[in-house]
Amino acid sequence: MEYQLAIDVGSAWVTAALADGGRVRVVSFGGAGSRLPAVLYLGADGSTLFGHAARRRALADPARAASDLPRRLGDPRPLLIGGASLPVASLLARLLSHVVAEVVSQTGGPPTSITVSHPASWSPYKIDLLSGALHQISVDGSPTFATCPAPVAAATYRQHLSARTGDPVAVYDLGAGSFDTAVVGLDAGSEEGSGDWPDGGRWVLRGHPDGLEHMGGRDLDEAVLGYVMNVLGDRVAGLPWTAPPEITTMPRTVPPIDPALLSGFARLRAECTEARETLSDDTEAEIGVVLPSVVTTVRITREEFDALARPALTETVAALRRTLLSVPVDPADLGAVLLCGGLVHTPLVHDLLVAELGADVMLDVRPAGEIALGAALIAALIAAHEASPDLASPDAVDGEGPVEGPAADKERTGVPSTGLIAPPLPTSVPPADHYRSRPGAAGTGQGEASAHEPVAPAGHRSRRLTGPARRHPWAFAAMIIWMIPLIVIAVILFGGGSSGGRAEEYHYASPWVYRAQEQAENLPPPAVGDVPNPGPNDVTVGGSIEVAPVTETAYALFRRQQRDVQVTTRAVNTDDGFAKLCQGQLDISGASFPKEPTAACGQDQVSAFEVAHETLPVVVDRSNTWARCLTLAQLHAVWGKESTISSWRQVDPSFPDVPLTPAGFNPGSIPNAFFNAGVNNGREEGRTDFRSYSDGNAIAQAVGSTRGAVGYVDFPTLAANTDRVSGVQINNGSGCVEPTLENARAGRYLPLCKPLYIYVRSAALRRPAVAAFVRFYVSNEAEIAVAAHTVPRDEAEIKESVEKVDELTKDVGPVRPG
Hints:
Largest sheet: 6 strands, mixed
Helix content: 25-40%
Number of helices: 26
Shape: globular
Distance between the termini: 54 Å
């Protein structure tokens, strides 16, 4: 049996569909029906449960469960599941592998291709991560892999069901973890239905898709939980209910919590979800509360829920409005608005959309499973017409220039797209946990093609790996990618004269590459947490959570050379780490600001090393010609907690009356706190009505695609997106300073630039394990800092640190095997 498999992975559910001879059908997961809960449970015995079984176990033991994976994809922090530190992409790969195995057991053989859908608003690096997870699937038969924007799949299947007009359709997809919206239309070459594809032609994305990463059912469930806790008042005072559902996602910053309390809140969150779903059909719901301090029920009405949900749902409608304007298309000219996702059944969603679009626009609620069916249909059509290069790689979308086809997608990710994708976005640099090579390096879609793999011709299916590359694709990719960024970094930072601060020359290494090699060589994951009885080869690290990613990156590199040393990190903040360092509880402490020697911890007892500079340049879209330099007062006016600025003219009367759209890192994140403290006189709180994202690449994409937008990113992200955004100079009273590599290194881009330090106990430096790690850390600062999305110092300063550590450890012996 030859068939094509498509999978739609949401934050709450997984659906799958297969195409057999042009017929498509939804996959049934036995007693679980057609929807499989997107939950994994890692048992203490090493087993992994999926679906309903995993969800049941998670209620009693949430510390061993993982869910909400698509929304977490791209977060540089791994998940700590049952004491094991696991990358989100790896967990997603396990879930996908389980789905594939279930289908293979039903059909008796492997599929010829596997397609996974994704939100249209995802940035290129998140699609790369998804592609990487696909490559981790273990399945016989060497199927090809592809990705597909979910709105395109939804529109394709709707067209397949019945004859429709060629009018564009909007997709409003509100699921459990995120919101996605896009406009989809027939390709210009097939609008008359005479193209190579049946059912009226091929559907493609129009304009700029939009979305909200942290707007979904889970967020509304948290709002309901907040309502419950407010009703209970003093009876639940002091309970840490604001912790995320999977508290293990923040192992360095959240203290241990009673397992019974975790289980109680897991069950309470499930009650809140059920109540929210009930309110779609009923006017009130009861929420059962079973916590150590209280057992009761709380009543919530639809009116009360609507008051909680209205601000967030209004943002989704605003995102849909922006998408329509980007095409542009008038709501009256839409064939329909396709409503996908579980939350579209919420009555308030319908009311808000009617108010925005008008009563005459068709709101077409689509059943669950249609995105998977559409993706399977696309895969079947491509399989039937793969010999046509025009089908697989259209020349243009709506006059916006070339569209990346399978060849370009394969060149960048190793996984071809379906050819039905959005207008091209610039190759951007992912966060520090990303495993792909950087712009200009082998395997990217920018510059010359990979020297290690020929580019497939348009319409060609992806080349199937064989031998070691097939058995261990991550190790194979890591071996290829490992050396190139390091050579580029060495040339840029230390070779052939000054870089002149050219952002385009700032390239990356990647800790995920290192982790891939570690896995191939059976190295255990790095430890996180306390070490009760450290041995001679244990190195304990604490201090600032801003420095922790740099230290962890250093260890990712170091442990490949020195496997006998175990570095364990438990970061809280600078003061906590320095106090523990002085008390002898830590060997190394990270600091986000310099610490003065004290009587209890003098200069002869600790040694300080500067290891990187953290820099957050302000960015605007490339069409912004007026905000070349902003004062601190102007930045505060835009980003202050009480700011209501919505136009550039409000910032400066000489600026045009263009809407000002702020974008930045998620509230509560470290970059957000650092930025707010810099522009808001030390206060780590700022305005909250901005478009928030978990990574700088998404911010750069949002700012670059929105006229009048302003945001901030880390310096390496700016460096990779100079064709999309412009760095803004800052005048802090001493003249305008441009965010260049030279200024970032020198710490002149104030107040959004600061040095990061590590402090080492002098006594600990006498131990071979600590001496070896610190020596490696300072000697390889250039590579480590770049990989951690910070800025390294210049060669002379690094040399001074190396000489300092060499002097302090000159008679320390080598590390002995543990």
